[in-house]
Task: inverse folding
């Protein structure tokens, strides 16, 4: 653990200085100097800002980054191998544990200063991040983690707790957090809380909604624990409030004052002359599902193609010209090539080739290409900040889809699966400022058909820019039924992260034991056990997702 707080993250400082958060998530000025503060003197409010801002950055980097490629929300046409093709290795959890060091310090300082609000919040964030580590890697240091300041092999080279033990532990932490916060009033004057501005009820809703998420996560392996835990929450709404309205979503906006606290694909601070934005395109999988459902969320998330292609078989051979903003081609130009002539939205198919920039007859393929025949993500993602540019940690839409699935499967009686499905879709539309489109949508192609596949497909759609959770759902259910593209290094989607080499070398004994508990599959191949296609405890014996 750090002995001194040498700096506050640039993201957090931007929030403090700019006050640019929207609605009730603005952050006003603070008189605390974050530089050179001893750990024994730092106030937990300073640490809270850092924890939340770093959580926002970490989550978006995953859910808008490579996992969006895995889950076929987006594809890249340059610097694409990790995003499109799953070329992963040596995936570090250093950033995750760095956040947890600050969480631990926040809790310790809160206990010393007798500030129960910060103790409860620290427990929520501790659970959030340890659950995320278990979700991504499986077994990992938990009980003896972030305690290196105590010295000795036990803490410097901590044992790996099992994935099951981590889930069980963080669920108990969330229970404890709710109880601590429930003993307080409804509001703590905490401008440094960039998530809920000290709203105790919203923190409790977040904690209990996280429990629902985790109960569903482990329901295949521990069905009794999952059903009993969910019923405990659902049967006592006053004691265990949950997020049910989009206005209560756990979401953090980006201040956008520097490169460190801006949306990652912005073109103002990215230093790449805009290429970080330009290389991200819509994936055909998501585009085609949205179009089949007449789903107007596509208009918020994607740009229309700049130059549609018109394939006209009546044109003379060799015709290839742009007229009135459309590219007209004769049939021979398209021979042996895939051509998408949709006049509005065109996505790149997943891992379509090792030159994805050439897709759909792009006249200038290559790393610096600019493809006018496929859909860029919305231009709103070129901005450093914006009303819709948020790290979405957990939403009302997700909670309703959790309850819809639990009811449909018989895990618990959470009410009508249809009602929760519709409430989940509505919450997503509200979160993206499309509430006026909901009624027509839900009575059209998206009308409830009483299937798990439909619930999971809508949950997947709603996870736009936060696709990590949809990856975890896919591993557990196999939905939506995604197919790896021809250029992917495996024929199926990966299911976990690789343990990083430093951990395998420095903490060899404990890391090797954790690796030995992984189950190889036919797709592990030369990676052996430490493979993104090996199964950890959560998936072993389930037959999912493949």
Result:
């Amino acid at each position: 653990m750090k002995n001194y707080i040498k700096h506050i993250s640039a993201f957090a400082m931007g929030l403090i200085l700019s006050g640019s958060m929207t609605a009730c998530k603005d952050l006003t000025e603070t008189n605390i100097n974050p530089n050179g503060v001893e750990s024994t003197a730092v106030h937990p409010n300073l640490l809270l800002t850092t924890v939340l801002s770093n959580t926002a950055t970490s989550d978006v980097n995953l859910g808008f980054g490579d996992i969006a490629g895995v889950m076929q929300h987006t594809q890249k046409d340059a610097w694409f191998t990790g995003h499109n093709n799953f070329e992963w290795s040596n995936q570090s959890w250093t950033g995750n544990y760095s956040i947890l060091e600050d969480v631990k310090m926040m809790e310790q300082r809160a206990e010393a200063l007798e500030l129960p609000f910060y103790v409860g919040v620290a427990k929520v964030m501790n659970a959030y991040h340890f659950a995320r580590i278990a979700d991504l890697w499986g077994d990992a240091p938990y009980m003896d983690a972030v305690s290196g300041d105590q010295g000795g092999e036990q803490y410097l080279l901590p044992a790996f707790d099992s994935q099951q033990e981590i889930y069980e532990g963080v669920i108990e932490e969330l229970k404890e957090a709710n109880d601590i916060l429930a003993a307080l009033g409804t509001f703590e004057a905490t401008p440094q809380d960039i998530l809920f501005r000290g709203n105790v009820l919203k923190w409790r809703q977040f904690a209990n909604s996280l429990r629902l998420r985790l109960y569903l996560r482990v329901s295949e392996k521990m069905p009794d624990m999952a059903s009993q835990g969910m019923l405990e929450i659902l049967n006592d709404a006053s004691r265990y409030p949950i997020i049910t309205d989009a206005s209560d979503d756990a979401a953090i906006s980006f201040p956008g004052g520097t490169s460190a606290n801006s949306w990652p694909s912005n073109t103002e601070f990215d230093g790449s002359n805009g290429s970080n934005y330009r290389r991200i395109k819509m994936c055909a999988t998501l585009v085609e599902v949205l179009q089949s459902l007449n789903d107007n969320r596509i208009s918020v998330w994607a740009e229309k193609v700049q130059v549609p292609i018109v394939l006209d078989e009546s044109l003379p051979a060799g015709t290839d010209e742009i007229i009135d903003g459309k590219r007209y081609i004769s049939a021979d130009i398209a021979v042996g090539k895939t051509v998408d002539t949709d006049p509005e939205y065109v996505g790149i198919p997943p891992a379509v080739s090792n030159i994805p920039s050439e897709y759909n007859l792009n006249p200038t393929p290559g790393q610096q290409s600019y493809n006018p025949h496929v859909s860029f993500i919305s231009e709103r993602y070129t901005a450093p900040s914006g009303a819709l540019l948020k790290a979405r940690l957990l939403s009302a839409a997700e909670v309703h889809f959790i309850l819809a699935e639990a009811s449909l499967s018989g895990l618990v009686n959470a009410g009508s699966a249809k009602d929760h499905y519709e409430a989940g879709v509505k919450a997503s539309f509200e979160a993206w400022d499309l509430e006026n489109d909901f009624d027509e949508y839900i009575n059209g192609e998206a009308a409830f058909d009483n299937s798990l596949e439909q619930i999971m497909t809508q949950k997947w759609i709603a996870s736009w820019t936060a696709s990590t959770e949809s990856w975890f759902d896919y591993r557990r259910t196999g939905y939506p039924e995604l197919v790896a593209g021809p250029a992917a290094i495996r024929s199926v989607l990966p299911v976990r992260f690789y343990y990083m080499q430093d951990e395998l070398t420095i903490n060899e004994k404990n890391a090797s034991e954790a690796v030995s508990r992984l189950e190889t599959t036919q797709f592990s191949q030369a990676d052996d056990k430490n493979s993104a296609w090996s199964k950890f405890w959560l998936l072993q014996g389930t037959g999912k997702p493949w």
